[in-house]
Design a protein that fits this description.
Layout: E1 16-18, H1 26-37, H2 51-62, E2 67-73, E3 76-85, E4 94-101, H3 110-125, E5 129-135, H4 139-147, E6 151-162, E7 165-175
Parallel strand pairs: 4-5
Antiparallel strand pairs: 1-2, 2-3, 3-4, 5-7, 6-7
This protein binds coenzyme A.
């Protein structure tokens, strides 16, 4: 992991983007997840994960098993981006991306900074494909992903029905090499 595992970052600047230095940020991260989940629009889950689960996947980041970066306002987690390597046999080249920014902190460049850090770190692990799923109504996220080179691979039409509205599930991916030879 080299120096990506910085363990003594300071949390002083609004858009200070850093990997979690320690488990001390778990409660704040949990609150950020709860806030975004409660909006009911952007994430597939409608209930937050347990605090224990949040601690567990924060430990995965601290241990270097996944790439996760936090955006911090002093010691408050206001955004997060993670890229998780696939574990299944046959998918060693693949990883999946998730991102969120607290609604009070959107449109300030934080999402872009998180994406840049997380994608850079993920490529260091040597995957060739980063994939994600996003709801078709989520124009902000789709725009952000396109800016980073993600392309739409397909969509499940009317995949979700919530609060009286259908939404598509859009599949997007970013390939490090666009001309990979495939086995036939
Ligand atoms: C998607 C999200 C992470 C973007 O984070 P952000 O910090 O607001 O993004 P940035 O300020 O870096 O904006 C980067 C680009 O994203 C796009 N974007 C962001 N907000 C947008 C909006 N409201 N409408 C249209 N495009 C938008 C724009 O292309 C923008 O570039 P620009 O400012 O030069 O126009 C944030 O809106 C969010 O957390 N949403 C809720 C959770 C979520 O949707 N997660 C993704 C689930 S798949």
């Amino acid at each position: 992991m080299g120096n990506r595992m910085t363990r003594n970052a300071s949390y002083t600047t609004l858009t200070d983007v850093t990997q979690p230095a320690s488990i001390e940020l778990v409660d704040s991260f949990y609150e950020c997840i709860r806030a975004v989940v409660s909006e009911r629009k952007y994430l597939a889950r409608l209930e937050p994960p347990s605090r224990d689960a949040v601690e567990s996947f924060t430990r995965d980041a601290v241990a270097g098993r996944i790439d996760r970066f936090f955006a911090l306002d002093k010691a408050r987690v206001v955004g997060s981006c993670d890229i998780i390597p696939a574990e299944r046999e046959g998918f060693p080249h693949s990883a999946s991306l998730g991102i969120m920014v607290h609604r009070e902190y959107r449109r300030m460049g934080i999402g872009s900074r998180l994406m840049k850090k997380a994608i850079g770190a993920a490529w260091d692990r040597d995957p060739t494909r980063i994939e994600l799923e996003v709801f078709g109504s989520n124009a902000a996220a789709i725009d952000l992903y396109r800016k980073f080179g993600f392309v739409e691979e397909g969509r499940k039409l009317q995949a979700r029905f919530i609060d009286g509205v259908f939404d598509d599930n859009v599949f997007m991916a970013l390939l490090r090499q666009h001309n990979l030879r495939t086995q036939t």
